[in-house]
Amino acid sequence: MIEISLCMIVRDEESVLKRCLDSIYDIVDEIIIVDTGSIDRTKEIAKLYTDKIYDFKWIDDFSAARNFSFSKGTKEYLMWLDADDFILEEDRIKLKNFKENTEPIYDQIFMKYNVGFDDQGNVTLSYYRERIFRRSMDFKWVEPVHEVINPGGDIYYLDIAIVHGEKVRKKNDKRNLNIYENILAKNQTLSPRGSYYYARELYYNQLYGKAIKYFLEFLDSNKGWQEDCIQACKLLSLCYAKMGDSINQLRILFRSFEYHVPRADICCEIGQIYFERSNYESAVFWYEMAIKKKNLIENNGFIYHDYYGYIPALQCCLSYYRLGNIEKAIYYNDLAGTYKPKSPAFLYNKEFFNRIDK
Q1: What pLDDT, on a 0 to 100 scale, did the predictor assign at position 168?
Q2: What's the pTM value of the predicted model, to 2 decimals?
Q3: For residue 100, how many other CB atoms are within 10 A of its CB?
Q4: Are 33 and 50 in contact (CB under 8 A)?
Q5: How far is CA 188 from CA 134, 185, 279, 315, in A?
Q6: For 139-164, how does the pLDDT look when each residue is reduced to its tens digit (9 = 90+)?
């Protein structure tokens, strides 16, 4: 059996904190809440679960706040959650069993993180994230934004999911961008990871030209993590699309193959470019390649689940229809339906093909 301190940083989380703590309070052995400046009922809610509540002056540095929360944990292992995270009952049972039947042999435990969902609640985006740490190893969070603990020691990947839900309150979309730009204004240098995430914030804030510059600098440094490089290629392609540069939009997606074998989502992005050019034969090639890919969650890799079957099947249906091959179009629409039988797109296509078949 292992003992766990849950260490959280919070601010104005009254809409989601109870849901989070209800899902975890009876599994962990200690709850640490570090508040960075709440003006709502966050602390009042936290007091229902723990008396270990601390204040931390916000200094535009998530790692500093998380390291402070870890410093307050006293148990053998330290675990983190965001306030809008929670655990479903099936995974709660699994986590309890793991905790009660595991010897303290691991230094760092990664858990699945489900962060994207469709209208029916199906998971569309997931990846593994560092989640539980042996306290004696003194792991430290790094990076002021999009903080991370670098992998180290004896690592274990636990097939139990944390759900990342949506906050009710509106997020400040420029918060992260402002933190990075304040760092640069002080003539401080961003790390390779920081450069990637700064470029990403520029993209999210529709500063596409500047985002292109920083994405390219990040990729050309050859110092980024494999997954960050692949994601940078995807976002850079979208930047080029916004700038009307279709040539580089395609080229940068092919560059992603330098870092790993083609991912299904990358294949679909390439297929979509050819589809929009009315080059349906080339589009089909890349969509069919995506369908052949196996949906395996790799260590620290992002998995966009719908691209491993549903999306490329739908797009093959459309492409073959444009090519005049109705039989193939129907085949691929039916294939899409095996992944999502309640999909409005699948059902619409099915009704359409039934009409033209009469």
Answers
A1: 46
A2: 0.92
A3: 10
A4: yes
A5: 32, 7, 47, 46
A6: 999 999 999 999 999 999 999 999 99
Mean pLDDT on 185-202: 96
Neighbouring C-alpha atoms within 13 Å toward the C-beta of 340: 26
**In the structure encoding, which two tokens stand for residue 70, read together?**
């870890």
Say if CB 317 and CB 349 are below 8 A apart. Answer: yes
The answer to whether residues 240 and 248 touch, using CB atoms and an 8 Å cutoff, is yes
Q: Strands 123-134 and 108-117: what pairing?
A: antiparallel
Nearest to 99 by CA among 84, 91, 22, 70: 91
Q: CATH topology for 172-255?
A: 1.25.40
Fold designation for 261-358: 1.25.40
Extents of the domains making up the chain: 4-164, 172-255, 261-358
Give the residue ranges of DSSP H helices in the chain: 17-22, 42-46, 62-72, 89-101, 175-185, 192-204, 208-220, 226-242, 246-255, 264-276, 280-292, 310-322, 326-339, 344-356
